Amino acid sequence: ALEKKVVKSKVGEKVGLPCCHEIPSSESLHNYRVYWQKNTTEVVLAYAEGKMISKHERYENRTEMDTRNLTLWISPMEILDNGPYQCVVQHLRFPQNSVVVCDEPVTLFVTADFSKPDITAEVSTNSCESTEMVVRCSSHGGFPKPKISGALNNVSVVWNASWVSESSLSPYNVTGKLWLNVTKDVSITCSVEHSGLLKSTSLLLKKSNICVVPTVPPSYNVITASSIIIIIFLLAITLAARYLPRHVCSHCCKPHDSVEEGVKECMKPPMSSKGTSETSSV
Predict the structure, then answer these.
(1) Residue 16: what are its φ and ψ, rounded to 5°?
(2) What are phi and psi of 126, to 5 degrees?
(3) Torsion-angle region of 274 (φ positive above 0: left; ψ -120 to 50: alpha; else: beta)
(4) For residue 142, what pLDDT band results from cuts at 50, 70 and 90?
(5) Which of 28, 120, 139, 235 could form a disulfide with 192 if both were Cys (CB 3.0 to 4.6 A apart)?
(6) In three state form, how does the secondary structure of 154-180 look?
(7) Are 189 and 150 in contact (CB under 8 A)?
(8) Cα(256)–Cα(250) distance, integer angstroms
(9) What is the pLDDT of residue 230?
(10) pLDDT, tens digit, for every residue of 74-133?
């Protein structure tokens, strides 16, 4: 089986794609046709009889070909350059007759570094026992699509991750989210990995020392019992005021058969002891 050629490069670098044929010193480029193409349909550049006959506008001022070993040089590298290429070489033995010398593919993998992961934590709920928080990790500007992983005190955690990219050949932005219930200070690590490259960031998550005891309203049973006690107390006072015997003045008369007589009797002035003694003597 034919061994696949793979070339790796980063955005902004200069890279050379090797061809499958090298022109011997006894000959020159005038004896050949050379086609460099991408995805078998897009001609990057082409040479015939020593002259360039075609060049794709996207590669204008970014490509050149070695006239001896036919290596295709691309600089600066772009994400859109990622993909399979093919070098086709034809030997012109006679003007009207050409022979294919080689036709082999080479794959170009382009990568772009992601930014260092940024971790933020936002407290959502706080109590004496624990602190609930939302932790986010984000990184941007890289290629290809990355993997995001994490660890909480060196114990693996799974991020709720989302990726954003304009197309399959555009830079990616990645964001991971975690909902944590922190009962003590812990360390969270976020790692973004692509094409064997890894970038990590760690952050110490501190449990809040502010203890807020939530106010619990009295239960329905307590309110009902309190209301009953108050009602009974008020009823007891009312009944006591109405039915308990009142204090009778010693100078007031006893009730008589008629109200008129009672009034008259009660209006009589009390007799002094002196008056009583005089009446007795007569």
Answers:
(1) -115, 130
(2) -130, 135
(3) alpha
(4) very high
(5) 139
(6) CEEECCEEEEECCCCCCCEEEEEEEEE
(7) yes
(8) 16
(9) 87
(10) 999 999 999 999 999 999 877 677 889 999 999 999 999 999 999 999 998 888 788 899
- Length in residues, the chain: 282
Q: Which two tokens stand for residue 87?
A: 């070098």
pLDDT for the residue 275: 40
Measured in degrees and rounded to the nearest 5, phi and psi for residue 276 equal -70, -40
Q: Which one, of 201, 90, 198, 91, lies nearest residue 136 by Cα?
A: 201
Q: Taking Cα atoms as reference points, which of 227, 224, 139 lies closest to residue 190? A: 139
Q: pLDDT of 146-160, one tens digit each?
A: 999 999 999 999 999
What gap in Å lies between CA 27 and CA 41, rounded to an integer?
Answer: 29
DSSP state for residue 57 in the 8-state scheme: G
**SS3 of 227, please?**
helix
Structure tokens at 182: 């922190």
| 178 phi and psi angles, rounded to 5 deg | -135, 145
